[in-house]
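Attaching the record inline, Q. Sequence:
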Amino acid sequence: MGITAHIGFYKTGTTTLQKQVFPKLKKTRFYGFKESIEQFYEVIFLDDLYYNEQKHISYFKELSNKQAVLFSQEALSGFNYFIATINRSIVAHRLYKIGFTKIIITIKNQLTAIASFYREYIKMGGVLPFKKYFNNEQKIVEKHFSFNQFEYWKLVQLYC
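Structure, as predicted:
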C-alpha cells in the first residue's frame, strides 16, 4: 500500500486540509492532528536513549499493509516558537526509517504567514505588540517567535 505524512508548516492551511480534503480521499485511512499525535509523540519528542525504532517500524508497517494511510501532523515540521523547537532532521530520518513513502509539505507566502501567526497569538490571549512579538534580537529564552520557521526550503531540501 503506502504510508504518507503531511507535515505542513503551521498556519499553511493544514486545518482546512485535515477537515475538508483528506477525510474525503478514497481508499485511504486518514489520521488527523488529534488522532496522530499519539502515534508520533515518541517519534517527535523522545531522544535516541528512549526511542524504540523497531516498535514504530512494526506499528506503521502493520497499518500500511491493510490500506493506504495518510497522517497529517504539523508538529512533525517543528514549532514556530524558538524555545520549544524540535530537531526536525531527526524526525525526518525517523520517518524515513519507519517506512514513510511520501511526504506532503504545505507552505504559505511568508508575509501572509507572519500576519496569520500574530493573529493566532492575539486570539490565544497574547498581549505583546507586533514588533515585540517578532523581535529577532531578543535573548533565546525571551523569544516568542523565530523567523527560521519561514525557511521552508531547508526542510523541503532535507526531505528530498
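The mean pLDDT is 86. The chain has one domain: 3-108+152-159.

More tomorrow.
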